[in-house]
Amino acid sequence: MLKLYCFRLEKVILFIGLFLFSSGYAQNQTITNDSFWETVEGQPIYSQGGGIFQFRDSQSGSLKYYWYGVHYAEAETYRDDPSVTLERNHFKGVTCYTSTDLVNWTFEKHVLTPEAVDYDSNPTWLGRMGVAYVAEIDQYALFIQHGKNVMIALADSPLGDFKVHRHIDMTGRIGTPNTGDQTVFTDPDTDKSYLVYSYGQGRNKIYVSEIGVRDGKVDLLDLTEIFRGASREGNCMFKYKDKYYMAASNIYGWDGSLVYYLVADDVRGPYKPTNEMLIMPGSEQDYAHVSQTGFFYTLKGSEEETVLFCGDRWAEFAGNGLGYNQWVPLSFKEDVPHFNSLHAWNLDEQTGNWTVAKTNNYVKNGSFEADRRHIPSNNKPVQEQLLGWHTEIIKGNKIATNDPSSPVLNYFNTREDRKQVVGEKSLNISDDIPFERRITQEISSTEFVDLPDGNYSLSAKIKNNSRFEQLKLYASSGGQTFEIHLNTEHPEWTPVTLESVNVRDGKVTIGIYAQGKAGASAQIDDVRLEMGAVRR
Length: 536
Description:
mainly beta, 8% helix, glycosidase, hydrolase, Glyco_hydro_beta-prop_sf
C-alpha cells in the first residue's frame, strides 16, 4: 500500500508541476534590464525598433503576443564583445517572438528575410517597423522604413513569410520621400491601426495616418499633422484610460533621451499642449533608463491597466551599456504618465499588476552611460552635472561649461577598460590642483516605487592612483553613515562592496568623497545599490 501511495503521490506532484509550467506560473516573471535577453530556450533575443501586437494563433485560435523587431548583424557582434562600439548596421531580418505573458518569449522565425528585400544588391537601412492586421483583405501588413521609402510587406499569417507589396514615396504626402521615425499603433478598443511618423528632414512635424485598403492596395488612408515644433524622433503612441498619448525622444542619434509626450481625447487630436511636448516625469535622471522611446504596450489585466514603456537601447551603435531592450512600467497621476526607471521588476500578465523585483538596482545612471558627452558640456545638451548625480566642489577648480580649467566629471573608457566595466563612460575624479569634492545621489521612495527599509549592499568598481589623501564610498541613512575607505592604489579595475547598509525611512544618500593632491585620479563605474545578499 505504501508503494502504491507513493506512486500516486508522485503522479499528483508531476501533474501539478506540468500544469504550473504549461500555464506559465513556473516560469520567471521578472523583467531584468541592463542585460542581453534570451528566449525561454536560452537563445539570444535580437529585436530592435519594432513593436508588440496581439493576434490569434492560426492553429489554436487563442490570443498571443507577437513581438517583431529587426535583427542586425552588429547586435550579435556587440553581444559577444561589448568593448567595441560599432559604426554600421547590416540587416539580417525581421524577427518574430511569441509569448503568453509578455515576459517569456519564444523565437518563431525571421518573418522578413534579406532575400525578400533583395538586400545583397541593395544593402540599405531597414528599421522602425510594426505589423497591422488588415481585415478588408484578411492579411497582415508589415510597415518598415526601407531606404528612403516606406515599405509594406504582406503575409497570410502573423508568422509570415512577408512578401513585398509596395513602396510608398512620401513626398506627395509630407514633402519628404521618407518618414523620420515611425511605429505602428493599434487602438485596443477599435482594432484600427495607424502609422505614427515624423517629417523626414528635421523631424519637427509628426503625423498619424490610418492603415487600410485603397484601390486594391494597402495604403495610408489619411494624413493628420498632430505636432509641429522641436525636432523629435522615436515617435510612438499608446492609449490609457481612453486617452491617447503621443510620445517621442530628442534627436540624439543612438543615445538615450528624455521622454516627451502629448495627450488627446481622439487619436487624431488635438494633442495638448499644442506643439509643445512635455517631459515625462521620472525620465530625467538617466534619460529613460539609457534608452529611446521605442514602443508602448497597454496591458488590460483583470485588476489593473498597465502601460509598458519599451525603450530601444542601441548599445551596439552607442556603446552605452548592455541590452537592447529596456522595459519599465508607467504610473499615472490623473493623465500625467510617470516613468519608473527600474533595473528589475515583476509583471503579472493576468492581473496587470507589477512590483519591484528584489534584484532591482536602485541607482540611477550607475554606469554613467546616460551622459552623451564629456561633462560639463557646452554642446547639445548643455549640461553641467552628470545625470542623476551631484558633484559638490569643496576645494579645487569649479565646474563650468565654458571654462577650460573645469574638471571633467566623466571618463571615456578605453577598450581594455570596457572588458572590465560596462559601457563607454565612467565617473572621473581628478584635477590638476589639490582638490576636495563629494559626488552624491539621493535615493528615496517615490509616489509609485518604494525604497523598502532594510539592509542593502552598495558596490562599485574602482581604478585609482596613489595621490589621494582620502577616497571613500559611503551611504547615509537614518542618521547613520556607512563607508569603505579606498585610499590604496588600485591600478586595475577592482570591485568594492559596502555591505549591510541600513536604509531607514525610505531614503538613502550614496556617494563618493575624495580629497586628492594635484594629479590624483580615480575612475568609478557600475555603482549598484541592491537589497539583501551581496552578489559574488
